[in-house]
Design goal:
127 residues; mainly alpha
Length: 127
Amino acid sequence: MFRKLFGETEQDQIQFLHPRAIATLVILALMVVALILHAVGLSGGADAIAGIAEMGVAIVLLFVLGWPVVKGLFGITAIGAIFSGNVVIGVVLFVVYLTLAYFLGIIFAFIGTIRYIYLRIKYGKNQ
């Protein structure tokens, strides 16, 4: 299963998951900073950072993790191919694909994070 999702070899999987793990960690760090600022009483700064973190989560889940899966599942080679027939149907399909990509991004974020941690532990001992 992991070969189809993240790459053929374990080294390919590490290379595929590494930038995605960094993006996820940056978003989680922003959320922790927002929680700390809110606990201290600086709610204005916490609200701004929390807003940025929420938007970052949506972007990472949708475009970094989910969209490549949807492209692979449905064979989408270009965005323009969705709109090539009928524009109205293309818009509806695009919204459905984006929604599906977001929810698949949530699932693959958990699977990819667990796999990345496993591979780092496995190869961390050998390096």
